[in-house]
Design brief:
This protein is of the alpha+beta class. It has helices at about 1-15, 140-150, 190-195, 225-230, 275-280, 335-340, 370-380, 405-410, 455-460, 505-530; strands at about 30-35, 40-45, 75, 100-105, 110-115, 125, 130-135, 160-165, 170-175, 180-185, 210-215, 220, 245, 255-260, 265, 295-300, 305-310, 330, 340-345, 360-365, 390-395, 400, 425, 435-440, 445, 475, 485, 495-500. The chain has a five-stranded mixed β-sheet with strand order 10-9-13-11-12, with helices on one face. A five-stranded mixed β-sheet has the order 15-14-18-16-17, with no helix packed on it. A five-stranded mixed β-sheet has the order 20-19-23-21-22, with no helix packed on it.
């Protein structure tokens, strides 16, 4: 009953109104109402919130008034989600397709919008104009076609066509991707976006030889490596309906290190030589030098790595002519390689504090530098360093003791020594255990116990084997290399080594072993003869 009363009220209001009224629109929408004073001037008014949804009524319109209607008039269009675009939409490159949503915006004598959609046959319908074919045409060409068609029927209105919602379609992503299959895409999305939805490119996948096959048979190439370096969208094109993306496996990849701006592993697809490698590695760094040859590490026919030095062409700035193979390693030397260096051995900053560990580190040699300045430049000594037993190893293998505890802890600069070219500074680790070696059942390093003597440590190692010499022949070796014979009164300190020597076989024992072997052979021969009889 309430619905019938509401409809009757609307009929009476429509008859009394001097112009057309649209009723029954939702409260969230706006009705286009033609003003009585000027029937061609449209104004927007909100519809009454209490009116329930109903079917719009047809009313008479004065003969001199033309009201343009569409199948889907847009009065208050819903917000379309904004797509992240890398660059503005180019109307000369965007190809219209099935599912694209456009708006015809009219202004001047009338102000309104009409939303039209390209149907599955590639056509769009405009009221009083009919169907317009725009599929497969660029956005600029489609705009010209629609303008020409609408202008014939509405010559007095200003209007334009705009794309409000790109279509959604499916593309195939196949071959070397974690999840090959069909994925949704839009014509304003780059190929890399869809590849990322398929799981991205694995470690053995090619980033430079990705191909896109369009529905018309044409192809395009994607080079994501150069795209990430240059940002050129030609290397990462937009997608189209029915595209097939192929991500092949990596073909020829080379590793470059040293004085280049971007060291790493790169796939080569063009000339596959040293010049292309330098191009993708962004060229030489400021520390590169041409005085030293380029080092090439390559596997030989026996799958063993071998190094080859490739010098730069003399007198020119040209690059070496070097054809590269898969899994090659190219090292570009720097000025640091020209400098003389000093070797630091042992407990230097950054070393793992393990008992028997040895850490090596090279630092550039500086004329007239001392031990204190060298250690400060290297970052100091590491944990577990035996600073009292440190020394300088000369080129002729002589050792010069350096008391680092006096130099670094007590700041006694008289203990400082000068470093010369060819020297090696050795900072040994201070071992906190006792090493038991030789003819024992469990030779190893054992925790230091101040209450243990030599017998206790040997017993903890399982005792002597039957090949060990007498316990009195054992000896104790201190960290500085001093040997002391066995004695129950010896004090064992951390870092000491206990050696239980093996005994040699005497002549009588050798004869006994030989006779035993001969007896076994005779017994075996007798058994064989008895079995044959």
């Amino acid at each position: 009953m309430n619905l019938r009363n509401s409809l009757c009220f609307r009929l009476i209001a429509a008859v009394l109104a001097p112009s057309m009224i649209f009723v029954g629109l939702p409260s969230a929408a706006k009705a286009q109402v033609v003003a009585p004073g000027n029937p061609l001037e449209a104004i927007d008014r909100p519809s009454p919130p209490t009116v329930p949804p109903a079917v719009p009524m047809s009313v008479s319109v004065p003969s001199d008034t033309e009201v343009v209607q569409a199948e889907r008039p847009v009065i208050n269009p819903a917000a379309v989600p904004t797509l992240p675009l890398e660059e503005p939409l180019d109307p000369d490159k965007y190809i219209c397709g099935r599912g694209d949503v456009f708006e015809l915006n009219f202004w001047g004598r009338q102000n309104f919008k009409l939303r039209v959609t390209v149907d599955m046959e590639g056509r769009t319908f405009i009221s009083k104009v009919g169907y317009v074919e725009i599929v497969g045409k660029t956005l600029r060409r489609a705009r010209e076609i629609v303008k020409a068609a609408v202008r014939r029927y509405f010559p007095g209105l200003n209007f334009d066509l705009t794309l409000v919602e790109p279509r959604t379609f499916l593309v195939h992503v196949v071959e070397d991707v974690p999840h090959p299959g069909l994925y949704t895409a839009r014509p304003v999305e780059l190929a890399s976006n869809v590849i990322a939805r398929a799981g991205g490119i694995p470690a053995n996948g090619s980033k430079r030889r990705i191909s896109i096959r369009h529905r018309d048979g044409s192809t395009a190439t994607v080079d994501l490596l150069l795209y990430n370096l240059t940002g050129d969208t030609k290397l990462n094109p937009y997608l189209m309906d029915g595209d097939l993306i192929r991500v092949p496996f990596e073909d020829l990849a080379v590793t470059v290190a040293g004085a280049v701006n971007r060291p790493g592993r790169y796939e080569l697809i063009n000339t596959k030589d040293f010049s292309e490698l330098m191009e993708v590695a962004s060229g030489f760094s400021s520390t590169a030098t041409r005085q030293l040859p380029v080092r090439l590490v390559r596997k030989d026919q026996r799958e063993r790595q071998s190094q080859t030095d490739v010098p730069y062409p003399s007198g020119t700035s040209a690059l070496p002519e070097l054809d590269l193979h898969a899994d090659d390693l190219v090292y570009v030397p720097s000025v640091v390689d020209l400098q003389r260096s000093v070797l630091l051995v042992g407990a230097i900053a950054g070393a793992v504090p393990t008992d028997e560990a040895t850490h090596l580190r090279r630092v550039p040699f500086v004329e007239k530098e001392t031990v204190r300045a060298l250690l400060e430049r290297a970052g100091g000594v590491g944990p577990g360093a035996d600073m009292v037993q440190s020394y300088i190893m000369k080129g002729d293998s002589t050792q010069v003791p350096v008391d680092l505890e006096a130099l670094l802890v007590r700041r006694d600069f008289s203990a400082d020594r000068q470093i010369e070219m060819g020297d090696s500074l050795v900072v040994p680790y201070k071992r906190r255990s006792v090493l038991v070696e030789g003819a024992v059942f469990r030779p190893s390093a054992y925790p230091y116990n101040p209450k243990f003597n030599l017998r206790d440590y040997i017993a903890g190692a399982g005792g002597e084997t039957r090949f060990a010499q007498t316990l009195e022949n054992s000896k104790l070796i201190t960290p500085n290399g001093k040997e002391m014979p066995f004695s129950d009164q010896l004090t064992v300190n951390p870092g000491d080594t206990i050696v239980v020597p093996e005994r040699n076989f005497s002549r009588s024992e050798v004869v006994t072993l030989i006779m035993g072997g001969v007896g076994i052979l005779i017994s075996g021969a007798a058994l064989v003869l008895a079995a044959r009889k």
